[in-house]
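Quick one: sequence plus adenosine-5'-diphosphate SMILES, need C-alpha coordinates.
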Amino acid sequence: MEDKYLFLEQQNVDPYLVEALKGWAAKYPVDEEVEKRVSAPPIPFYGREILEGAIAALLQGENLLLTGAKATGKNVLAENLAWLFGRPVYNVSFHVNTSSAELIGTDTFLNNEVQLRRGIIYRCAQYGGFGILDEINMARNDAVSVLHATLDYRRSIDVPGYDYIDLHPATRFIGTMNYGYAGTKELNEALVSRFLVIDMPAQTEDTLNYILEKMFPDMREKAREQFAGLFLDIQLKAENGEISTKSLDLRGMAAAIGTVRQGLGPAAAVRMGITNKCFDIFEKEIVEDVVKTRIPADWKREDVFA
Ligand SMILES: Nc1ncnc2c1ncn2[C@@H]1O[C@H](COP(=O)(O)OP(=O)(O)O)[C@@H](O)[C@H]1O
Ligand SMILES: [Mg+2]
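Reply:
Sure thing.
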Protein backbone atom coordinates (compact mmCIF):
# COMPACT_ATOMS: atom_id res chain seq x y z
CA MET A 1 0.00 0.00 0.00
CA GLU A 2 3.00 2.28 -0.44
CA ASP A 3 1.21 4.11 -3.22
CA LYS A 4 -1.11 5.66 -0.69
CA TYR A 5 1.17 8.66 -1.15
CA LEU A 6 0.90 8.55 -4.94
CA PHE A 7 -1.95 11.07 -5.14
CA LEU A 8 0.21 13.56 -3.28
CA GLU A 9 3.01 13.13 -5.80
CA GLN A 10 0.53 13.45 -8.68
CA GLN A 11 -0.57 16.81 -7.29
CA ASN A 12 3.02 17.96 -6.86
CA VAL A 13 2.78 18.20 -3.11
CA ASP A 14 6.19 19.29 -1.79
CA PRO A 15 8.35 16.09 -1.82
CA TYR A 16 10.05 17.22 1.38
CA LEU A 17 6.72 17.02 3.18
CA VAL A 18 5.88 13.66 1.63
CA GLU A 19 9.19 12.20 2.82
CA ALA A 20 8.65 13.59 6.30
CA LEU A 21 5.18 12.10 6.34
CA LYS A 22 6.45 8.64 5.42
CA GLY A 23 9.07 8.80 8.15
CA TRP A 24 6.55 9.96 10.71
CA ALA A 25 4.02 7.22 9.94
CA ALA A 26 6.73 4.54 10.25
CA LYS A 27 7.63 5.78 13.73
CA TYR A 28 4.29 5.06 15.41
CA PRO A 29 2.90 1.54 14.99
CA VAL A 30 -0.83 1.17 15.57
CA ASP A 31 -2.10 -0.97 18.45
CA GLU A 32 -3.72 -4.17 17.14
CA GLU A 33 -6.85 -3.47 19.15
CA VAL A 34 -7.68 -0.41 17.09
CA GLU A 35 -6.38 -1.46 13.67
CA LYS A 36 -9.93 -1.48 12.33
CA ARG A 37 -10.08 2.25 12.84
CA VAL A 38 -7.36 2.79 10.27
CA SER A 39 -9.09 2.91 6.92
CA ALA A 40 -8.65 4.30 3.45
CA PRO A 41 -10.80 7.34 2.64
CA PRO A 42 -13.55 7.00 0.01
CA ILE A 43 -11.78 9.41 -2.33
CA PRO A 44 -8.37 11.08 -2.43
CA PHE A 45 -8.49 14.72 -1.43
CA TYR A 46 -7.80 17.15 -4.23
CA GLY A 47 -6.08 20.45 -3.42
CA ARG A 48 -2.29 20.84 -3.21
CA GLU A 49 -2.03 23.95 -1.04
CA ILE A 50 -4.56 22.71 1.47
CA LEU A 51 -2.80 19.36 1.72
CA GLU A 52 0.60 20.99 2.21
CA GLY A 53 -0.65 23.29 4.94
CA ALA A 54 -2.46 20.51 6.76
CA ILE A 55 0.42 18.03 6.58
CA ALA A 56 2.97 20.57 7.80
CA ALA A 57 0.77 21.62 10.71
CA LEU A 58 0.13 18.07 11.86
CA LEU A 59 3.80 17.10 11.54
CA GLN A 60 4.56 20.05 13.77
CA GLY A 61 2.17 18.64 16.39
CA GLU A 62 -0.57 21.18 15.89
CA ASN A 63 -4.31 20.58 15.78
CA LEU A 64 -6.32 21.73 12.80
CA LEU A 65 -9.63 23.49 12.44
CA LEU A 66 -11.18 23.18 8.98
CA THR A 67 -13.70 25.91 8.31
CA GLY A 68 -15.74 26.47 5.19
CA ALA A 69 -19.03 26.12 3.45
CA LYS A 70 -20.87 22.85 3.08
CA ALA A 71 -19.37 20.32 0.65
CA THR A 72 -15.91 21.86 0.58
CA GLY A 73 -14.42 18.51 1.57
CA LYS A 74 -13.70 19.11 5.26
CA ASN A 75 -14.49 15.59 6.37
CA VAL A 76 -12.87 14.01 3.34
CA LEU A 77 -9.70 15.97 4.08
CA ALA A 78 -9.72 14.90 7.73
CA GLU A 79 -10.09 11.24 6.73
CA ASN A 80 -7.33 11.58 4.13
CA LEU A 81 -4.99 13.04 6.73
CA ALA A 82 -5.63 10.26 9.23
CA TRP A 83 -4.93 7.71 6.50
CA LEU A 84 -1.74 9.45 5.33
CA PHE A 85 -0.48 9.61 8.90
CA GLY A 86 -1.55 6.00 9.39
CA ARG A 87 -3.66 6.70 12.47
CA PRO A 88 -6.90 5.24 13.84
CA VAL A 89 -9.88 7.59 13.50
CA TYR A 90 -12.16 8.68 16.35
CA ASN A 91 -15.14 10.55 15.02
CA VAL A 92 -17.16 12.76 17.35
CA SER A 93 -20.25 14.55 16.07
CA PHE A 94 -20.81 17.59 18.23
CA HIS A 95 -24.30 18.79 19.09
CA VAL A 96 -25.92 20.89 21.81
CA ASN A 97 -26.16 17.91 24.15
CA THR A 98 -22.56 16.75 23.79
CA SER A 99 -21.34 16.23 27.34
CA SER A 100 -17.91 16.08 28.87
CA ALA A 101 -18.76 12.60 30.18
CA GLU A 102 -19.24 11.36 26.64
CA LEU A 103 -15.95 12.95 25.59
CA ILE A 104 -13.73 12.13 28.54
CA GLY A 105 -15.40 9.35 30.47
CA THR A 106 -17.96 8.43 33.04
CA ASP A 107 -18.39 6.12 36.01
CA THR A 108 -19.83 2.73 35.33
CA PHE A 109 -20.53 -0.23 37.58
CA LEU A 110 -18.62 -3.29 36.41
CA ASN A 111 -17.56 -6.47 38.26
CA ASN A 112 -18.99 -5.12 41.48
CA GLU A 113 -17.03 -1.94 41.39
CA VAL A 114 -17.18 1.52 39.99
CA GLN A 115 -14.91 1.85 36.99
CA LEU A 116 -14.20 4.43 34.38
CA ARG A 117 -15.91 3.96 31.07
CA ARG A 118 -13.47 5.71 28.81
CA GLY A 119 -14.94 8.38 26.58
CA ILE A 120 -14.05 8.74 22.93
CA ILE A 121 -11.46 11.49 23.43
CA TYR A 122 -9.82 9.44 26.17
CA ARG A 123 -9.49 6.45 23.85
CA CYS A 124 -8.29 8.62 21.01
CA ALA A 125 -5.61 10.03 23.31
CA GLN A 126 -4.52 6.59 24.48
CA TYR A 127 -4.11 4.98 21.08
CA GLY A 128 -2.58 7.91 19.26
CA GLY A 129 -5.71 8.48 17.25
CA PHE A 130 -6.80 11.27 15.01
CA GLY A 131 -9.86 12.74 16.65
CA ILE A 132 -12.24 14.28 14.16
CA LEU A 133 -14.28 16.82 16.08
CA ASP A 134 -17.10 17.25 13.62
CA GLU A 135 -19.03 20.52 13.71
CA ILE A 136 -17.28 21.41 16.93
CA ASN A 137 -18.99 24.82 16.96
CA MET A 138 -22.35 23.15 17.60
CA ALA A 139 -21.40 22.10 21.14
CA ARG A 140 -22.00 24.16 24.25
CA ASN A 141 -18.93 25.97 25.59
CA ASP A 142 -18.93 24.13 28.92
CA ALA A 143 -18.81 20.75 27.17
CA VAL A 144 -15.79 21.62 25.06
CA SER A 145 -13.93 23.54 27.75
CA VAL A 146 -12.86 20.15 29.19
CA LEU A 147 -10.78 19.81 26.03
CA HIS A 148 -8.65 22.90 26.64
CA ALA A 149 -5.77 21.05 28.29
CA THR A 150 -6.06 18.27 25.72
CA LEU A 151 -5.77 20.63 22.79
CA ASP A 152 -2.99 22.92 24.00
CA TYR A 153 0.66 22.41 24.93
CA ARG A 154 -0.32 20.40 28.01
CA ARG A 155 -1.49 17.55 25.78
CA SER A 156 -3.20 15.87 28.71
CA ILE A 157 -6.55 14.77 30.07
CA ASP A 158 -7.54 15.17 33.68
CA VAL A 159 -10.31 12.72 34.42
CA PRO A 160 -12.17 13.85 37.55
CA GLY A 161 -11.78 11.20 40.26
CA TYR A 162 -9.32 9.22 38.15
CA ASP A 163 -5.98 9.74 36.55
CA TYR A 164 -4.30 12.39 34.67
CA ILE A 165 -3.14 10.98 31.36
CA ASP A 166 -0.79 12.31 28.74
CA LEU A 167 -1.72 12.10 25.09
CA HIS A 168 0.06 9.50 22.99
CA PRO A 169 2.59 11.47 20.90
CA ALA A 170 0.79 10.63 17.64
CA THR A 171 -2.58 11.99 18.80
CA ARG A 172 -3.97 14.92 16.80
CA PHE A 173 -7.33 16.63 16.64
CA ILE A 174 -9.04 17.96 13.55
CA GLY A 175 -12.10 20.10 14.10
CA THR A 176 -14.58 20.95 11.37
CA MET A 177 -16.94 23.86 11.30
CA ASN A 178 -19.46 24.88 8.68
CA TYR A 179 -18.91 28.48 8.01
CA GLY A 180 -20.18 30.28 5.03
CA TYR A 181 -23.19 31.45 3.16
CA ALA A 182 -25.78 30.75 5.82
CA GLY A 183 -25.61 31.77 9.47
CA THR A 184 -23.06 30.06 11.65
CA LYS A 185 -22.72 29.45 15.34
CA GLU A 186 -19.36 30.96 16.26
CA LEU A 187 -16.66 29.00 18.02
CA ASN A 188 -15.33 30.65 21.15
CA GLU A 189 -11.97 32.33 21.01
CA ALA A 190 -10.24 30.21 23.64
CA LEU A 191 -10.97 27.13 21.61
CA VAL A 192 -10.00 28.63 18.25
CA SER A 193 -6.65 29.68 19.72
CA ARG A 194 -5.81 25.99 20.16
CA PHE A 195 -5.95 25.23 16.44
CA LEU A 196 -4.33 26.25 13.22
CA VAL A 197 -7.15 27.18 10.89
CA ILE A 198 -7.61 26.21 7.26
CA ASP A 199 -10.37 27.98 5.40
CA MET A 200 -11.55 25.55 2.74
CA PRO A 201 -12.11 27.07 -0.69
CA ALA A 202 -15.39 26.65 -2.56
CA GLN A 203 -15.51 24.10 -5.38
CA THR A 204 -14.26 25.13 -8.80
CA GLU A 205 -14.68 23.61 -12.25
CA ASP A 206 -11.28 22.02 -11.79
CA THR A 207 -11.97 20.41 -8.40
CA LEU A 208 -15.41 19.19 -9.47
CA ASN A 209 -14.08 17.58 -12.62
CA TYR A 210 -11.43 15.82 -10.57
CA ILE A 211 -13.95 14.59 -8.00
CA LEU A 212 -16.48 13.38 -10.57
CA GLU A 213 -13.82 11.66 -12.63
CA LYS A 214 -12.51 9.84 -9.56
CA MET A 215 -16.00 8.78 -8.54
CA PHE A 216 -17.33 7.95 -12.00
CA PRO A 217 -14.47 7.16 -14.38
CA ASP A 218 -16.99 5.77 -16.88
CA MET A 219 -19.09 8.94 -17.10
CA ARG A 220 -19.25 10.75 -20.43
CA GLU A 221 -17.20 13.91 -20.51
CA LYS A 222 -20.12 16.04 -21.69
CA ALA A 223 -22.32 14.81 -18.86
CA ARG A 224 -19.55 15.39 -16.35
CA GLU A 225 -19.24 18.99 -17.50
CA GLN A 226 -22.99 19.51 -17.11
CA PHE A 227 -23.10 18.03 -13.62
CA ALA A 228 -20.09 20.11 -12.57
CA GLY A 229 -21.80 23.17 -14.07
CA LEU A 230 -25.00 22.39 -12.21
CA PHE A 231 -23.15 22.28 -8.91
CA LEU A 232 -21.38 25.57 -9.65
CA ASP A 233 -24.68 27.24 -10.61
CA ILE A 234 -26.25 26.16 -7.33
CA GLN A 235 -23.14 27.18 -5.40
CA LEU A 236 -23.28 30.67 -6.92
CA LYS A 237 -26.94 31.07 -6.04
CA ALA A 238 -26.23 29.99 -2.48
CA GLU A 239 -23.27 32.40 -2.26
CA ASN A 240 -25.53 35.22 -3.42
CA GLY A 241 -28.13 34.32 -0.85
CA GLU A 242 -30.78 33.52 -3.47
CA ILE A 243 -31.22 30.04 -2.05
CA SER A 244 -30.13 28.16 1.06
CA THR A 245 -27.38 25.54 0.97
CA LYS A 246 -29.85 22.64 1.15
CA SER A 247 -29.48 21.70 -2.51
CA LEU A 248 -25.75 22.41 -2.48
CA ASP A 249 -25.10 18.78 -1.84
CA LEU A 250 -22.22 17.05 -3.54
CA ARG A 251 -22.97 13.78 -1.83
CA GLY A 252 -26.54 14.04 -3.08
CA MET A 253 -25.35 14.75 -6.59
CA ALA A 254 -22.98 11.78 -6.50
CA ALA A 255 -25.83 9.58 -5.26
CA ALA A 256 -28.01 10.82 -8.13
CA ILE A 257 -25.32 10.02 -10.69
CA GLY A 258 -24.96 6.60 -9.09
CA THR A 259 -28.66 5.88 -9.53
CA VAL A 260 -28.41 6.94 -13.18
CA ARG A 261 -25.76 4.29 -13.58
CA GLN A 262 -28.26 1.83 -12.11
CA GLY A 263 -30.60 2.77 -14.94
CA LEU A 264 -32.76 5.63 -13.63
CA GLY A 265 -33.39 8.61 -15.90
CA PRO A 266 -31.10 11.58 -15.09
CA ALA A 267 -33.96 14.04 -14.49
CA ALA A 268 -35.62 11.78 -11.92
CA ALA A 269 -32.28 11.04 -10.27
CA VAL A 270 -31.41 14.73 -9.91
CA ARG A 271 -34.82 15.39 -8.41
CA MET A 272 -34.07 12.91 -5.61
CA GLY A 273 -30.43 13.89 -5.13
CA ILE A 274 -30.73 17.67 -5.40
CA THR A 275 -34.08 19.37 -6.06
CA ASN A 276 -36.09 17.58 -3.39
CA LYS A 277 -33.61 18.65 -0.74
CA CYS A 278 -35.31 22.04 -0.78
CA PHE A 279 -38.39 22.21 1.37
CA ASP A 280 -39.34 25.69 0.34
CA ILE A 281 -41.43 25.90 -2.84
CA PHE A 282 -39.88 29.13 -4.09
CA GLU A 283 -36.40 27.84 -3.56
CA LYS A 284 -37.32 24.58 -5.20
CA GLU A 285 -38.51 26.43 -8.30
CA ILE A 286 -35.23 28.28 -8.58
CA VAL A 287 -33.30 25.03 -8.33
CA GLU A 288 -35.61 23.34 -10.84
CA ASP A 289 -34.90 26.11 -13.33
CA VAL A 290 -31.18 25.68 -12.92
CA VAL A 291 -31.48 21.93 -13.31
CA LYS A 292 -33.45 22.32 -16.55
CA THR A 293 -30.67 24.30 -18.19
CA ARG A 294 -28.09 21.65 -17.31
CA ILE A 295 -29.79 18.27 -17.38
CA PRO A 296 -32.18 17.96 -20.35
CA ALA A 297 -35.48 16.30 -19.39
CA ASP A 298 -35.11 13.72 -22.16
CA TRP A 299 -31.61 12.57 -21.16
CA LYS A 300 -31.28 8.83 -20.67
CA ARG A 301 -28.72 6.70 -18.92
CA GLU A 302 -26.82 6.46 -22.23
CA ASP A 303 -26.37 10.23 -22.28
CA VAL A 304 -24.49 10.03 -19.01
CA PHE A 305 -22.67 6.74 -19.15
CA ALA A 306 -20.98 5.25 -22.18
N1 LIG B 1 -11.22 18.70 -2.51
C1 LIG B 1 -11.93 17.55 -2.55
N2 LIG B 1 -11.34 16.40 -2.88
C2 LIG B 1 -12.05 15.26 -2.96
N3 LIG B 1 -13.36 15.16 -2.69
C3 LIG B 1 -14.02 16.26 -2.35
C4 LIG B 1 -13.34 17.52 -2.24
N4 LIG B 1 -14.24 18.46 -1.87
C5 LIG B 1 -15.43 17.82 -1.77
N5 LIG B 1 -15.31 16.50 -2.05
C6 LIG B 1 -16.44 15.56 -2.12
O1 LIG B 1 -17.57 16.25 -1.64
C7 LIG B 1 -18.37 15.45 -0.79
C8 LIG B 1 -18.64 16.20 0.50
O2 LIG B 1 -17.44 16.30 1.22
P1 LIG B 1 -17.40 16.48 2.79
O3 LIG B 1 -16.01 16.25 3.22
O4 LIG B 1 -18.47 15.69 3.44
O5 LIG B 1 -17.75 18.05 2.89
P2 LIG B 1 -17.96 18.95 4.18
O6 LIG B 1 -17.56 18.15 5.38
O7 LIG B 1 -17.07 20.13 3.92
O8 LIG B 1 -19.41 19.34 4.14
C9 LIG B 1 -17.65 14.16 -0.60
O9 LIG B 1 -18.37 13.16 -1.26
C10 LIG B 1 -16.28 14.35 -1.24
O10 LIG B 1 -15.99 13.25 -2.04
MG1 LIG C 1 -18.85 17.75 7.08
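The chain is about 45% helix and 15% strand. The longest strand covers residues 172-178.
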